[in-house]
Amino acid sequence: MTKESDLKALMAASLEGDSNAHRSLLTALSGHLRSYYKNKLARAGRTAEEAEDLVQEALIVIHTQRHTYDPEQPLTPWVYAIARYKLIDHLRRTRSTTADVPLENAEYMLASNDNAAAESQLDLAKLFERLPERMRLSLQYVKLDGLSVTEAADRSGMSPSAVKVNIHRGLKILTALIARETKA
Amino acid sequence: MKTNELISMLSSQVDPVDTREVVRNVRIAILVGAAASLLAVVFVLGVRTDLNEMHAQVFLVAKLAFSLSVVILASHYLVKYIRPGGEFRVRFALTVLPFLAVMILAAISLATAPRSHWETMVFGSYWLECLIAIPTVAVVPFAAIMSAVRLAAPTDLVRTGALAGLVAGGVSATAYALHCMDDLLPFIALWYGGTIVLCTVAGAVLGPKLLRW
What we know:
The complex is a heterodimer of chains A (about 180) and B (about 210). Chain A is mainly alpha-helical.
């Protein structure tokens, strides 16, 4: 159950730099986005398999463009506008009619929540290979293997602050790579 | 890739962000564009020489009232349009008010003047200069504003581009008014209003190309 007010509170905390709130927010939104995209893609006569790509693409935008949210406004229409923009962009890119995407009220978007995640067509391992080694290792240890920054620093021989910087930069590069990949 | 892996990656090292920055950027861009337009008009075209005369001052104020109200209204809407979903929050119908006002005043002044004067009232002496100068001077503010808007993520690129063009055209017309010697209302309505509309259309056309994300 994620209502507008809960999501908005999570967003407020995440804008302050709260990682846990950011994670909860993205997790909650991924469910809503999934049901939104499955629904819309089905109506546009497309397969639901494209939905997970779009969910991830929208999550990346929500993450990288979070500074464009106006905290005085409700969150749902902002998320919905991003989701819809990415959907239309996707349908246009994959040469299909956009006439079937109806303009409708934002409330519908949060009416359902589909938490059954699938895998997208993005191959994370391949994208990882394109990162410089130190960034790749830092991300691998901390993000995928679940080590703490200190443990990752010990294992890789980097200082903890270097690991943090590498994670930070690596994430930026990786989100850019993912964004480019989903566009191609 | 699994979506929860992506979420883990995105939610590590989350930096605090400033949500007012996008609006601030656009405001700064408008000011920078305005300064560039002013410099272009002052140093390239030159300020009109009769500004010590009362009638010149009155007409200058009238022109500025028109062009500045365009700038103020349009930039008010622009800063709302730059955020995702901004187009669902506000409609910018009010931006036509300055145009409507100047057209009504122009119509009244034409109606009260003899027919033989109409051509001079509409075309003045420098209509061609006005037609070329306002869109040309608008290029720099337009470029500045669009690059600031690109840092946000507008979802209605046509209207956001149009508003950016409208602001740029208004800024340019404001600066050009310092140079322009044609003072009659029908002239202002057609050539100032028309060229600002031209800038708006150009913005609407360029918006989807320049603002895609």
